[in-house]
Inverse folding.
């Protein structure tokens, strides 16, 4: 699973969560510095990955 965190005024961050053999989870994060990566909406993110099948869901923090 990959979460893409979007912040105003800075590069988005992709965090990949991987399930291990013993049900542990590891996480790896990286900044996305590609100017062609549009992330203003779930539809824009999905269009970036148009070559592969992805399921994009917007998650908003609780206030």
């Amino acid at each position: 699973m990959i979460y893409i965190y979007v912040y105003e005024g800075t590069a988005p961050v992709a965090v990949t969560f991987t399930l291990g053999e013993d049900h542990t989870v590891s996480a790896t994060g990286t900044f996305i510095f590609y100017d062609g990566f549009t992330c203003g909406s779930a539809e824009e993110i999905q269009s970036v990955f148009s070559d592969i099948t992805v399921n994009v869901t917007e998650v908003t923090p609780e206030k």
Observations:
- The two ends are 24 Å apart (CA to CA).
- The CA atoms of residues 14 and 30 lie 5 Å apart.
- The chain has a mean pLDDT of 90.
